[in-house]
């Protein structure tokens, strides 16, 4: 994994062999201003457009910035107008904090993003997200796996446990 960008708020890495782009929001986002957030977000989009990725891991586990609705709408519009998705069957895993507010914020942002060409799942752990991205499987555990589709989160956790029990 090659580090292609790092600031006190975000780290972006790319692995050319497996075509994995990974963005990790850092704990210091509790001190980020609105203009700094916008700058970091645009930097991510710029680098994402330069990397021939097939898999994306967004790690928001340490993300502390409280976004207002106008920032969520701005971020969604930036993705819709500036992100170039070159890979067919691209996959994105988002690792979120278990804080309810972060899930609601993610839901609102994704609701406004036009990412039909990217399969997206939300995970409580980075390990589960990597397993799905790199191996194509989700290992049943007590951690949550969420799918956001038709403006609704679906909890896959119970379905995974039932599937394993029936095998």
What would you say about this model in short?
The protein is an alpha/beta fold. Helix content is 38%, strand content 26%.
Explain the overall architecture.
- Strand 2 (10-15) and strand 3 (20-25) form a beta hairpin.
- This protein has one domain (2-165): 2-enoyl-CoA Hydratase, Chain A, domain 1, CATH 3.90.226.
- It has an 8-stranded mixed sheet, sandwiched between helices.
- Helix content is 38%, strand content 26%.
- The protein contains 5 helices and 8 strands, in the order βββαβαβαβαββα.
- With 167 residues, it is an alpha/beta fold.
Lay out the secondary structure.
Layout: E1 2-6, E2 10-15, E3 20-25, H1 34-50, E4 55-59, H2 69-82, E5 90-95, H3 100-112, E6 118-123, H4 126-135, E7 145-149, E8 152-155, H5 157-165
Parallel strand pairs: 3-4, 4-5, 5-6
Antiparallel strand pairs: 1-2, 2-3, 6-7, 7-8
Helix pairs in contact: 1-2, 2-3
